[in-house]
Amino acid sequence: MGMDDCPPPLVIFSVERSTESGITTSVGREMTLTRRVDVKYRDNRTSYIDRLWLAGEVELTNTRDQAARVRYRHSVPFDSWFIARPPAGSPACVEEGAVVALWEVRLDARESVTIDVSWSVDLFDRADLNRDGVVDVEDLGIFLTYYGTEQRIADLDDSGIVDGYDLGLLFSRWTG
Ligand SMILES: [Ca+2]
Prior knowledge:
The chain contains 2 helices and 10 strands.
């Protein structure tokens, strides 16, 4: 699931964000004694329905007089009601309530490189048990096989047991 293997946070740096028509633009720069990171990307963190995406570039600069590795990481939050599934080979991974992506490049002395940091991750409703994009009678069928158990996939409210509250949640998300 990739739930536990997201890379740990790096030094946080400030990014200016503005949102217009559901698209958030982030621009920022981090400068230390050894590196400079310039980011500019857009994402749909405020308007996603079934897909969370981010598109943009990061310029990484090694300001040292010797080769070094420079890393860049970002994290985009989403409603934890949804299950996020990065496609195979994606730079993105998922931790609780956020999509995380990390890049690392080796740069020569004083070298600068611009990298594409775009990704896209499918989001599934937690009640969409077979992850096919709709909450319908097939999901209800799966749900009922787990009724009364502690099966986590059907324990929609994380109470520890699959019961009537979970059934109510499933119907509240019904798309038919
Ligand atoms: Ca389904």
